[in-house]
Structures are given as structure tokens and as C-alpha cells.
Specification:
By secondary structure, the chain is α/β, with parallel strands linked by helices. The chain is built from 21 helices and 14 strands. Bound molecules: adenosine-5'-triphosphate and magnesium ion. The site of magnesium ion (MG) has 4 residues, from helix 9.
Length: about 475
């Protein structure tokens, strides 16, 4: 409460101490009369007094009258009470819900101190009985919030549940069957899996499937794309942030991916794109299975199964110092190499069939068929973007025609020209080299973007340049 300046014309009473005494007493009397019941405990935690109001509760607590109740240790007569805690800590519990065999009550518990500040007892008050009626609006609001929270938690769990199983990995070619066999075996273990393969070969799909077939299936699957997280945020993203680690707006604690993946699977996508500084920290976390949130000096134990994926040549990166050798061995426990689409063309038809079905469902149009001529054209393509590229090609062809059956011609505009270099050479008389190089660069970038469905990160990977370089070149074209 705010202190108010005493009006100048009124002198202070002679005896301020007795006034305070009076205030204390009238407060006590006030609460004793407005509350539903009140009790006093001594230092030892024995009930020494109850007021008239409190007597009402005695039958429900199993006592005929005050003589059996008063004089006993409080926990013996009031189940679930926290009065002892208040005596021991000297800290009040100003408002709380107490439930026992007599019902649910809104209670308040206050320690009593002597002149020297020593705790000499405690007051317990029942502010409301039947809170379900008196506090109905509050309780209803609380119940609603609780319900919203439960719902959000359920949704989150559903989102984290895996999207794919081994059955979603289409293919019966020897190469596809071998990959599935290895992945199934990996799912039986808790070892780290390293998924290798070109862009669009299904590494992410397989990571989900391994998790879904593992003993951790009911636990979260948490993915981090290392090519998409800015370097400065990576540590916080992985290890989390302790409360107050940053000043300013973001002072709340935040769980990192390791913590979120506890008892589940952590998917390190594009693991080859990890900066060296983070590699050292990640190695430590993987070895010790413990993490230290930013700005905290406590370590947290975690239990995560790691699946890493990359389309980069990690061995070559180790050789020229861009990837730590020790981390490479840590990740390369169970390597699984996904075949390129061009190396399992016998799966093309089944893949196309399955992709056309999912495309039809997504765009809400009837499912298309592939004519033999279309299949033949698709089989001559090199598919640098693999199954993602196939999906994009099918979707674009389906958008270009209403024909229920896709034919070879429908793919003429969709698939990039077979050889960019050939085109550049065809272009007529010799021209200055810089001009030719610029044209080649431009058409290569366009082909890569077509192959990856406009995904710049994947396109950059396909071209073997950094994302920044790709953006730079795209910018220069405008
Ligand atoms: N065997 C398969 N059967 C059916 N669909 C597949 C298969 N493999 C991949 N796909 C589909 O192809 C697309 C690309 O797959 P995914 O994202 O798993 O590739 P990736 O290897 O992780 O590629 P990147 O290295 O570019 O991240 C997805 O739409 C996926 O569903
Ligand atoms: Mg991927």
C-alpha cells in the first residue's frame, strides 16, 4: 500500500505503538469475521485456537468438537495442509487451493513473528469454501486455459510424430531394396546413422522412416537444417538459452533442439554445412550426451539418437580441413548411401505413379497417368535433382495439360535441355569467351533452379557453389 503523508494539521498520536497494536488486532478480528474460518498454531505446529467459523468444518474432517482438534499437530487433523511449511520457512502462502476430505478451499497461511522477528506461530485462514461456486469465473478461465494448453501439446506431438514409414520409400530395384534393408537394420539399434546421397534422393524421408520403426517412435523426431540456421544462432538453436542469458526482450529460457529431442531422435540435416566452431561443440554434446544452455553453467543430461544427412562429400571435406575428422567418425557409425534416381531407373514408373497420386491429392485434380512415350522420355533424363526433380517435373506437366494421360510432348517444356554446353556451342559463330561463360553460367543456374523446383539452397548445392554466391549471381542477372 502507498504511504500517505499525514495531513499537517493533525498531530501524530502520542502513542503510535498502541495504534499499531490496535490495527493489528482489528485486522485480526476483521479476518476472523470475514473469513470462513481461522486457526492459530504455535511454534511447534500445534493447533492452539480455532474461531467459531472454523468449527463448521470439524465434522467433515472427522471431529465431533474442538476438544479433539485443538492441541493436536496440524497435519494430524488437517490433511494436505502446508501450515508446517510456513512455520519452517517463515514465508507466507497468501493464496492457495487446499483439497482434502472436507472439500476444496481457498486458503491463506501467514507466519507470526515476535518483536525480534522470530517465528512463533502461524495463522491459517479459509477465505472461501466451495470455491467451485464462489470462484466460478476464475476456475472456468483456468480450466479453459488448461484445455487450450493440452490441445496445443497434442497438436505439437502430432506434428512431431513422423510423417513417413518405410512403406513411403517407393522402389523395388535392387539398389532401393538394399537401402531399405540397411535402414531397417539401423532402426533396430540406437547408433548414429549417416545418410549420404545426392539432393532429392529421399534422405529426409528415410530419416523419418528409421525413427518411426525404432524403439523411439513414440518420442519426438526433431529436425535441424544446418544450411538454413544462421551461424550466429546455431548454438542457441542446439543447446538452448538459460533464463536471463540475454538482456532485453528475449530473457526467457528456451529449450534447444537437443532438449526437445530428449529420448527421441535428432535429425541433423545438411550436416556437411556445419561451421567448424559448432562441430567441436556438437562433438562434445554427442560424446557426453550432455549439453550446456547458453548463459548457464549447468549441464543437462540428454538421451538422443542422431541421424545425420548430407549430400556433400564429407571425406573430401575432412581431407581439406572443412570437417572435423573426429566428428566424421562419430557420425559415420552406420552409413547408408541412397542411390541416385538415374541408377535405379527401373523404379521410375512406380515412383511416378506414387508421386502423381500425391500431386493429385495436393492440387485437387484427378490423378494423371503416364504414357509409355512419356516414361521413355523421363528415362533418358539425368535427374540431377533426383526424386524431388521428378516430382516437380510431373507436377508442372500436369499443370500444363488437362489430358488425363501425360505424353512425351508434355515434358518438352518441363525438362531442362539435355546439354547446356551443347546449346552454347550450337549458338553460332565464336563469340568472346566472357560472354560465353556468362551465358553458360546463366543457363546452368536456370537448369539447377528448374531441377530443384526453385529451391535455392539445393540449386547451389547442385552447382557446387555457396548459397551466397548463387544469390549474388541471381542478383547480377536482374
Ligand atoms: N523413395 C521415395 N519414394 C517416394 N518419394 C520419395 C522417395 N525418395 C524421395 N521422395 C520424395 O522426394 C522429395 C525429396 O526427398 P527428401 O527431401 O527426403 O530428399 P533429400 O535427400 O533430403 O534431399 P536434399 O539433400 O536436397 O535435402 C520428397 O518429396 C520425398 O517425399
Ligand atoms: Mg533433405
Amino acid at each position: 500500500m502507498k504511504k500517505q503523508a499525514a495531513p499537517a494539521q493533525l498531530p501524530l498520536p502520542d502513542d503510535a505503538a498502541s495504534l499499531r497494536e490496535l490495527a493489528v488486532r482489528s485486522m485480526f478480528d476483521l479476518f476472523s469475521s470475514v473469513s470462513e474460518g481461522m486457526m492459530l498454531l504455535d511454534r511447534a505446529g500445534r493447533v492452539v485456537w480455532i474461531n467459531e467459523g472454523y468449527k463448521r468444518f470439524l465434522p467433515a474432517l472427522g471431529f465431533a468438537g474442538p476438544e479433539d482438534f485443538v492441541g493436536r499437530p496440524v497435519e494430524e487433523v488437517v490433511p494436505n495442509t502446508l501450515m508446517r511449511h510456513v512455520l519452517e520457512t517463515g514465508k507466507p502462502i497468501l493464496i492457495d487451493l487446499l483439497t482434502n476430505k472436507a472439500g476444496t478451499f481457498v486458503v491463506s497461511r501467514i507466519p507470526l513473528r515476535d518483536a525480534s522477528g522470530e517465528v512463533i506461530g502461524a495463522i491459517g485462514m479459509v477465505l472461501f469454501d466451495h470455491p467451485e461456486t464462489t470462484l466460478q469465473p476464475l476456475i472456468a478461465k483456468f480450466a479453459r486455459m488448461q484445455q487450450d494448453l493440452d490441445e496445443a501439446r497434442r497438436e505439437l506431438a502430432a506434428q512431431r510424430r513422423t510423417k513417413y514409414t518405410f512403406a513411403s520409400f517407393i522402389g523395388s530395384s535392387p539398389a532401393a531394396l538394399e537401402v531399405k534393408r540397411q535402414a531397417r537394420r539401423a532402426a533396430q539399434t540406437d547408433s548414429t546413422v549417416l545418410l549420404l546421397g545426392e539432393t532429392g534422393t529421399g534422405k529426409e524421408l528415410l530419416a523419418h522412416a528409421i525413427h518411426a520403426a525404432s524403439a523411439r517412435a513414440e518420442r519426438p523426431f526433431i529436425g535441424v537444417n544446418l544450411a538454413a540456421v544462421p551461424e550466429t544462432l546455431m548454438e542457441a538453436e542446439f543447446f538452448g538459452v538459460a533464463p536471463g542469458a540475454y538482456t532485453g526482450a528475449d530473457r526467457k529460457a528456451r529449450d534447444g533442439k537437443f532438449k526437445l529431442a530428449d529420448k527421441g531422435t535428432l535429425f541433423l540435416d545438411e550436416a556437411g554445412d556445419m561451421p567448424l566452431a559448432l562441430q567441436a561443440k556438437l562433438l562434445r554434446a554427442l560424446q557426453e550426451q550432455e549439453i550446456e544452455p547458453l548463459g548457464s553453467n549447468k549441464v543437462i543430461k540428454v538421451d538422443v539418437r542422431v541421424i545425420a544427412a548430407t549430400s556433400r562429400d564429407l571425406k573430401a571435406m575432412v581431407a581439406d580441413g572443412r570437417f572435423r575428422e573426429d566428428l566424421y567418425y562419430r557420425l559415420n557409425v552406420l552409413p547408408v548411401r541412397l542411390p541416385a534416381l538415374r541408377d535405379r531407373l527401373s523404379d521410375l514408373e512406380a515412383l511416378a505413379e506414387s508421386l502423381l497420386e500425391s500431386i493429385a491429392a495436393r492440387i485437387g485434380m484427378p490423378q494423371r497417368e503416364l504414357s509409355p512415350s512419356a516414361l521413355a522420355v523421363l528415362a533418358t533424363h539425368r535427374w540431377p535433382g533426383n526424386i524431388r526433380e521428378l516430382r516437380n517435373a510431373l507436377e508442372q506437366a500436369a499443370m500444363l495439360t488437362d489430358n488425363p494421360r501425360l505424353v512425351a510432348e508434355d515434358f518438352a517444356q518441363v525438362l531442362p535441355a539435355p546439354s547446356v554446353l551443347g546449346e552454347a556451342r550450337k549458338a553460332g559463330p565464336l563469340r568472346p569467351l566472357p560472354q560465353l561463360i556468362a551465358e553458360l553460367e546463366r543457363s546452368s543456374i536456370q537448369s539447377a533452379l528448374v531441377a530443384t523446383g526453385g529451391n535455392k539452397v539445393s540449386a547451389a548445392k547442385l552447382l557446387g557453389i555457396s548459397r551466397a554466391t548463387l544469390y549474388e549471381k541471381l542478383g547480377a542477372e536482374k
